[in-house]
Every structure is written in structure tokens, then in C-alpha cells.
Amino acid sequence: MAELPSTTGSPMPSFPKVDIHTHVYPESYMTLLRSRSTVPYIYDPPSNAPSRLIILSSDDNPSIPKENRGRPVDSSYYDVNEKLSFMRTHNITTSVISLANPWLDFLSPDEAAFWATKINDDLNALCESQAPHSGTLLNESSLLFAFGALPLSAPSTDIIANEINRMSSLKYIRGAIMGTSGLGKGLDDPGLDPVWAALESTQTLLFLHPHYGLPNDAFGGKETIERYGHVLPLALGFPLETTIAVTRMYLSRVFDRFPRLQILLAHSGGTLPFLAGRIESCIAHERKFVVNGGDVEGPGKSIWDVLKQNILLDAVVYSEVGLKAAVHGAGSVDRVLFGTDHPFFPPLNSKEETWLSVTMNQNAINSAFGEDSESAKAILGGNAARILKLDA
Ligand code: URA
Ligand code: ZN
């Protein structure tokens, strides 16, 4: 790949640097959130104070004034120019954007299909608007691709499967993002089989991302959460939610029934790589499973094979030890992909141009594998380019 021109003065890397975990709330979705007064919603204070994004139920604490609830929301959440500027600052050549949580989970059944079509068409058009036109740029690679959203609250799974089929023919869509609630009963729900089947048959990568966390009681209740802000729900609630969701899929034999399903797990799989051995051991010692004369047919495939064959992990783990666990769990550097989680975790000091949340992940890659090593390049972009067919 040739060097791309950069407006910051520092040249773009001569290899692709692809951000596969980067969110956007399209303008239409912002309007939808502004029209609501229950979670998820955007609150615009009557004063000139910044609007607030209240998407986590732990954020909607009535003892906190609305203008302090949740987090401030600025144009980095919806303006594509902010995304491009962030990419230039961090030498990112390509971003695979996705709608941020809680996606379309909260919609009434009759609205879901409309919004999924709208959001997916909007995302595709946004990517198209930034695509270089033939002959006008040094480099023909597109800057933006997207993971589409699913109408999970639709009245039938046929509607969800139809949208998966439709989005897989949109030029810039490279997969679908989904939370852990599925149709409302979690990801071991057999009712999801038509969704897994549609993802598998269209070879659509599923990006599994947390949103709901753990119940407040797990952290000592609302008062404790309020005392420490987002630290407990985001540092612990999110990764454990992902771990539980994918383990339920595994226990219910989803990967035995849909052996070609490909899932990208947010935040390096939560704690899955670290806990896989414990999951294996608990299954081997569980009397409920048929293998031990029990009454439930347990998973056929080993959790290690699922990690190597069905699961990809992002590299949003912020430490060398976490990244190494991800690579060992995935079985190879070829299944771990760089991401940023932009626009979440902005620098709290607005004068900093480079985001700490990005450099922590970049440093973990460099110290684990060596700057400019083949492994680092694979994680930073080569894997995403190959797996998501970004050249096609
Ligand atoms: N907080 C969120 O609500 N979502 C993210 O993706 C990251 C942080
Ligand atoms: Zn995220």
C-alpha cells in the first residue's frame, strides 16, 4: 500500500492500520435518542451546558441531576469529519464503523425493521461518501467500512434474517454488530437459530459487543457505582457480560450446530481467553452433562477449538498481559484485530491530541511483539484487511 497523505504532517504507515472497533451514532439515531426520556436517551439541558448521553441503566440515577447524568455527548459521536480527524491523528488508514450501544434493542417490534434498514443504508452511504473516486487519489483503498445493525426486536426472526441477507449485499457492510440480549433471552436462546443460520450462510461476521453489564448489586448497589463513576460497569461489567454471553452460546451448542459461524468479541473476549481452561474444567466435572450421565447435551467442540475456529478477538484490552492472553487464546496473532472504541474514552484533558485509550493499546501491541514486527502489522491491520476483504 502506498503512503497516504496526512494533514497532521506525519505520514500514514505504509501498511494498513485498520480500526475494527469504532462507533458512530448517525444523525438520525441521535434524533431518535433526543425524542426519548427513558434509557437510552439524550438530554439537552436548557442552559448552554453540553448534551448528555444516558445509555446505561446505571447512568439513570434519579438522585443525580439530569445535566450530570451519563456522559457529555459531542460531535465526535456523529460527525464523520471528527472520525476522519481522529483517524489522521492516530495514523489509522481504515475504520470499520458500527452503531454504538444499545443499537436497536430498545425499539418496539413495529419500528425495528424500519430503523435497521435506515441505519444500515445510512452507514453504507456514509462509507460511500468517503470512498476515493477512481483516479482522484494516490490510493484506491476505501477509508470507511461498516458493521450493520440488526432489527432484533422485530416480530419475527425472518425479518432479522432478511436484513442480514440484504445488508450482506451492501457495498461497504462487512458484518453485523449485536449486543448480548439477542431476542431478549440471551444468546443461548434456540429462537436465535434462524439468525445464526443467516449469518453463517451469508458468511457475515458478527461483532458481539456488551451493553447491559451486570446488575448493580454485583457492584454494591447504585451508591457504590455513583461513587466510582463508570469504572465498575465499564472495566468489569462489560467484559464479564461478553464472557457470560459467549459462554452461554457455547454451552447451548451453537458452535456445534453452526460450525462456520464467525464471531468477533469486543474487548478481547472479556475474560474468555483467561477463563477458557476453567470453563473446560467445569464442564468436565458437571454431572448435568450427558457425558457424565446427566440430562443436558453439553458442547461437543472444545472451548479451545471454538476460540481457534469460530472466534476473533479485538485488541482493545489496554495491556501487554491481556493482549498475550488474547493471542494465546485465539491460537495465533492472525485472529486478533486492532480497535480503539472511539468516540468512547476521550482524553479528559481536551488539550491532548493523542488519545490515551489508543496509545495504551498501540503500546501493548508494540511491547508484546515489537514495533514494526510482522505480528504487530498483522494485528494492526493485515488481519482485518484479509478477514473482512477490505480490498474487494
Ligand atoms: N462505553 C459504552 O457505552 N460503549 C462502549 O462501546 C464503550 C464505552
Ligand atoms: Zn465499543
TrEMBL record:
InterPro entries: ACMSD (IPR032465), Amidohydro-rel (IPR006680), Metal_Hydrolase (IPR032466). SUPFAM superfamilies: Metallo-dependent hydrolases. Residues 145-390 form the Amidohydrolase-related domain. Gene3D superfamilies: Metal-dependent hydrolases. GO terms for molecular function: carboxy-lyase activity; hydrolase activity. Keywords: Decarboxylase, Lyase. GO terms for biological process: secondary metabolic process. GO terms for cellular component: cytosol. PANTHER family: 2-AMINO-3-CARBOXYLMUCONATE-6-SEMIALDEHYDE DECARBOXYLASE (PTHR21240), ISO-OROTATE DECARBOXYLASE (EUROFUNG) (PTHR21240:SF28). Belongs to the metallo-dependent hydrolases superfamily. This is Amidohydrolase-related domain-containing protein. The lineage of its organism: Eukaryota, Fungi, Dikarya, Ascomycota, Pezizomycotina.
